[in-house]
Amino acid sequence: MSTEIVDTPKTGANEFPDIVGAKPENPYLASFRPYIPASVKLRELTPLPIIMGTLLGIVFGASSLYLV
């Protein structure tokens, strides 16, 4: 049985190797700031989409059944 010593990299050193030193080709993207910051937690499932989805599902289901 052999034991292997695995060298773990330092945290943060190459955390995102694909973007280290990379600069966007588009000058607009270099200064882009999103309208909604990443720290904001938005609700994804609310009563309104559930009700609208149910009503539209009923309408499309009924029209599909009628057309068949």
Question: Could you explain the architecture of this structure?
Answer:
The protein is mainly α and 68 residues long. It is 37% helix and 0% strand. The chain is built from 2 helices and no strands. The chain has helices spanning 27-30, 47-67. The N and C termini lie far apart (68 Å). The model has no long low-confidence stretch (mean pLDDT 78).
Q: Can you count the helices? A: 2
H and E string: HH
Structural class: mainly alpha
Average residue-wise pLDDT: 78
Task: Report the biggest beta sheet as strand number plus sense, adding barrel if it closes.
Answer: none
Low-confidence segments, given as residue ranges, are none
Large-scale geometry: elongated
Helix content: 25-40%
Beta-strand residue percentage: under 5%
Q: How many strands in all?
A: 0
Question: What descriptors fit this protein?
Answer:
single chain, mainly alpha, 37% helix, 2 helices, 68 residues
